[in-house]
C-alpha cells in the first residue's frame, strides 16, 4: 500500500513544535490554556495547525514554556494575508502537482481577472474603500502565481458560472474569454456541466481536490466565511468520487470551450 507521509504546512510544523515543547514542560493542554488564558480546545487547534495564536497569546505561550520569545517570533513569519479558514489551503496550493476545482456559481479565485475579483469583493462588503478593494485584488492576483508552478489544473464549471453577470457585461465577457484562452493554450483542462443534465453530484458545493508529489491528497470545500480542509482518506475519496461523477456529466472540452465563448459573446452583446 502507498504509505505516503502527510504533507505538513508551516502552521502544522508550528503546532507540532508547540506540542513537543508543552510535553517537555510537562503541561497538559488544560494547564497551558490556563496560563495563556484560553480554552484547552484552542490549544489543541494550535497544536493541530488549524489555528494560529494571536501575537499576545504567543507571548503568553513563550512565558509559560520559558521559550524566550520563540513562538512569538516564529508567528510573524506565519501570519497569513488570507482568512483563517483559507490560509492552510493557500499554502497547500503552492505545493500541489494536481489541482481539480469545481465551481458552482463563480469563477475560481486563481482564474479571476482583476475586474471580476473587484466586483465580487465589492458585493461582499456593505461599505468599502477603494484602497481595501485594491489590496484584496492584489492578494488574489498573487495567488495566480501558483499557475506558474505548473500544477496540472482541471476546472469544472457549473453552467451557472457562465450565466451570472458579475461586474457588468464587459467584465464578464473578458473573464470568460480569459478562462477559454487558458484552456485553449493547454494551461488548464476545462469542462462545463450544462443546465441540461439537471441534478449532479456536486450541485451542493464548490470543491477543490489537491494531489502532491509525496504525500496524501486533500479536499477542500468552502461556504460563507468558513471552509473545511479534509485529509481523512474516506472523506477525500468520497469527494474524488463526487468530482468524477460530476465530470462524467460534463460536456467535452471542445463543447465546453464553445459554450464559454458563446456565453462571453452573449454578455458582450447584451443577449441573455
Automatic annotation (TrEMBL):
<dbReference type="InterPro" id="IPR010982">
    <property type="entry name" value="Lambda_DNA-bd_dom_sf"/>
</dbReference>
<dbReference type="InterPro" id="IPR001387">
    <property type="entry name" value="Cro/C1-type_HTH"/>
</dbReference>
<protein>
    <submittedName>
        <fullName>DNA-binding protein</fullName>
    </submittedName>
</protein>
<feature type="domain" description="HTH cro/C1-type">
    <location>
        <begin position="18"/>
        <end position="70"/>
    </location>
</feature>
<keyword id="KW-0238">DNA-binding</keyword>
<dbReference type="Pfam" id="PF19054">
    <property type="entry name" value="DUF5753"/>
</dbReference>
<dbReference type="Pfam" id="PF13560">
    <property type="entry name" value="HTH_31"/>
</dbReference>
<dbReference type="GO" id="GO:0003677">
    <property type="term" value="F:DNA binding"/>
</dbReference>
<dbReference type="InterPro" id="IPR043917">
    <property type="entry name" value="DUF5753"/>
</dbReference>
Amino acid at each position: 500500500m502507498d504509505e505516503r507521509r502527510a504533507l505538513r504546512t508551516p502552521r502544522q510544523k508550528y503546532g507540532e513544535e508547540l506540542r513537543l515543547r508543552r510535553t517537555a514542560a510537562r503541561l497538559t493542554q488544560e494547564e497551558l490554556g490556563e496560563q495563556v488564558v484560553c480554552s484547552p480546545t484552542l490549544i489543541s487547534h494550535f497544536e493541530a495547525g488549524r489555528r494560529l495564536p494571536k501575537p499576545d497569546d504567543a507571548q503568553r505561550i513563550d512565558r509559560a514554556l520559558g521559550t524566550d520569545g520563540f513562538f512569538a517570533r516564529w508567528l510573524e513569519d506565519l501570519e497569513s494575508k488570507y482568512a483563517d479558514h483559507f490560509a492552510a489551503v493557500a499554502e497547500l496550493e503552492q505545493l500541489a502537482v494536481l489541482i481539480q476545482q469545481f465551481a458552482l456559481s463563480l469563477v475560481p479565485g486563481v482564474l479571476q481577472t482583476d475586474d471580476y475579483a473587484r466586483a465580487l469583493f465589492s458585493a461582499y462588503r456593505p461599505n468599502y474603500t477603494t484602497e481595501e478593494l485594491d489590496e484584496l485584488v492584489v492578494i488574489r492576483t498573487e495567488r495566480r502565481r501558483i499557475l506558474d508552478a505548473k500544477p496540472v489544473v482541471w476546472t469544472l464549471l457549473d453552467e451557472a458560472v457562465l450565466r451570472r453577470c458579475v461586474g457588468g457585461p464587459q467584465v464578464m465577457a473578458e473573464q470568460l474569454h480569459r478562462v477559454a484562452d487558458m484552456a485553449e493554450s493547454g494551461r488548464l483542462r476545462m469542462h462545463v456541466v450544462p443546465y441540461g443534465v439537471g441534478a449532479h453530484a456536486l450541485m451542493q458545493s464548490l470543491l477543490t481536490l489537491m494531489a502532491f508529489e509525496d504525500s496524501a491528497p486533500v479536499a477542500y470545500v468552502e461556504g460563507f466565511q468558513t471552509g473545511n480542509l479534509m485529509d481523512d482518506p474516506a472523506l477525500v475519496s468520497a469527494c474524488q468520487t463526487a468530482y468524477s461523477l460530476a465530470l462524467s456529466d460534463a460536456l467535452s472540452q471542445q463543447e465546453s470551450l464553445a459554450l464559454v465563448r458563446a456565453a462571453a459573446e452573449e454578455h458582450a452583446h447584451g443577449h441573455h
